[in-house]
## 1
Amino acid sequence: MHNGMSSNILQQQQQEQQLQLVQEYKSAARKRILIVNHEDDVSFALKLVLEVEGQVLYNKMNCFQVDSFNDSILALNNFEKGLYDLLIIAVVMPRMNGFELAKEIRKIDDKVKICFLIAGEIPSKVRFDASSSGQEEGGEGRYLDKFIRLPIENKDLIEQIDRIMI
């Protein structure tokens, strides 16, 4: 009976170690980010900063993996639930603005974090509807979408993205 208790304790310790390894892997795994912005140069700069500067700041390889689309409709048609940790969406875009895209994305994945890119003032023709940004009915905010105002310093961008990802 003493051997049986020892093997159970050993099995439990092994399971705890495996669980710890899985948790460490998940925390070390790179975070997937999707940028949707109709300005290719802005998307490229954001991708470069997040992938390269993020690696330097966190002192580890592949901190962020960044994909991008320059067309909101194309982004929506190719979006997959659970694939991304964060979406960075420009507010002002042709065909479908960022708030409309967020509303459609929420129908596919209601848990993905969304952050909006704004440069200057938001035109009055682009209306922000709280329900499109993941707010539950009754005004309770289940998802706290954030805004990033451009231009932004590289370090500030990475720190802001890091806070959003937590």
## 2
Amino acid sequence: MAKTSKLDIFKMLGAVDRKEYTFYDNLSDDERKGFSAFLGLKWGANVSGNNLAQHYYLVSMNNYANKHLFDINKHPKLQWLTLVAGSPNFGEYRHEWLGTKKQSSSKVKNDIKKRLMEIYPLYKEEDIDVLGTMITKKDLKKYTKECGDK
């Protein structure tokens, strides 16, 4: 049985950061079999660095890729193009897995959600819920202090 080569996720994320629209076209057949837009989205939407870059990637990837990623699952090149469209092309970032953090209690979770809704009144409730799972109360307090709020 022939061993298939997997697509290196970090190679793919670098191509997203550089907005390499032709990256998918240049993949070998084996690498195309290993392509996963879902993994690209989960890794691509979360970056280390300043808050502005983190916020941009999260919102942009949601806007360009997440909304219709599964509607176009029979078109992997189109999925690739939606991932690339979400990048600001400001250099390469260290991407991290976008998982969900466990909150200590529902009261803490509700407090975080309430505060996020105050900070981002134009966001949809679903977006606030996702953002709320990614941060802790300590992170939120630090962020509001940096922004000059109480």
## 3
Amino acid sequence: MKRLINQSLEAVRELFFPKTCVICDDLLIYGELGICEFCKFHLPYSSFEFDSENPIVKALWGRCSLSHGYHLLNYRRGSMASKLLHAIKYQNQKNLAIVMGNEVGKSLIRSTAISTIDAIVPVPMHEKKVRKRGYNQAELLANGISSITGVPVWSDFLRQMRLTESQTVRGRSDRVSNSGNKYQLNVNLNNLQFKHILLVDDVMTTGSTIMAAEHAIRTSLNREKLEVSVATLSYVF
């Protein structure tokens, strides 16, 4: 009965406040969350697989050691991907973040490397930003990936120790210095046994955030055979 009442209330709400696609503004039909199927189909999907040859891995060669990398979308300013990311980060589109995490997960399970991953670790956000926004979009993406792959999410594995300015208003060199030494391993998780971690974030630009997270993990754990891979929703070429 409660479920029926909730569905009825949702139907009434959509009648007076119809939901629209974050990209084309067309009305969404039942079952569509944040994005219509047409726009979802025409997103600028990456043709690269989850492997060591992904552009994300190559971009960080010599700066951090990643085993595999993957990005679902190719990001361009003003593109469909940028509208999608903006909606997820600033328009409270939490369900859309999970939906796109599902899409990342569907791509990852095509790779045999996914079977070696022990945990999915979302790149953390400072608690002040989480309180202001209400959520960490990287964690929502990670949850979407987990629901497809079955790999557990360790949301508290890393924490951001200092609040930094938004990376979107900084140049390349400033982004690197802005991200240095800002993450720390949660000591309560240090004794867990694992060999392969998948870092998850919404977008990679210079790679400074990924580098800082990877550095925090390796310097804290000091495990020679530990593998760190990364999956992002989008990558800025």
